[in-house]
């Protein structure tokens, strides 16, 4: 019960307006981000979701080697670039530039992608 009332308090601002959750702002174009870390967290977790989805697809379709890695890097960086520059239309300089946003969480998503790709490829295409 206490957590329910706490959530209601957190969801309302002092002036009575309803505060949007982080994920509702993430899927709403041109959202206002009060905190930089909140937007960076969204970028990070979107990368992880993309990594899992692409890892499963690459494992099912028997992609191998450098081609699979290169395509993942292009899609991952490209999708997130389009997301923050066109969909959210944020000022990249406020977050340290385009490169900082493009590389936010990239290595962890790359590692997750490799693990998921290897697991699915090995499970489905064993010799």
TrEMBL record:
Pfam families: EMC6. One of its GO terms (biological process) is mitochondrial respirasome assembly. It comes from the Eukaryota. InterPro entries: EMC6-like, RCAF1. The chain crosses the membrane at residues 42-60, 66-84, 105-124. Keywords: Endoplasmic reticulum, Membrane, Transmembrane, Transmembrane helix. It is found in: Endoplasmic reticulum membrane. It is a multi-pass membrane protein. One of its GO terms (cellular component) is endoplasmic reticulum membrane. Belongs to the EMC6 family. This is RAB5 interacting factor. It comes from Gambusia affinis (Western mosquitofish).
């Amino acid at each position: 019960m206490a957590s329910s009332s706490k959530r209601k308090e957190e969801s309302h601002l002092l002036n009575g307006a309803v505060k949007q959750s982080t994920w509702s702002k993430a899927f709403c174009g041109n959202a206002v981000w009060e905190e930089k870390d909140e937007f960076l967290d969204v970028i990070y977790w979107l990368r992880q979701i993309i990594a899992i989805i692409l890892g499963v697809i690459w494992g099912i379709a028997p992609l191998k080697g450098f081609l699979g890695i290169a395509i993942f890097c292009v899609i991952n960086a490209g999708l997130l670039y389009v997301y923050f520059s066109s969909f959210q239309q944020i000022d990249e300089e406020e977050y340290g530039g385009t490169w900082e946003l493009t590389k936010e969480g990239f290595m962890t998503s790359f590692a997750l992608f490799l693990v998921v790709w290897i697991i699915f490829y090995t499970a489905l295409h064993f010799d």
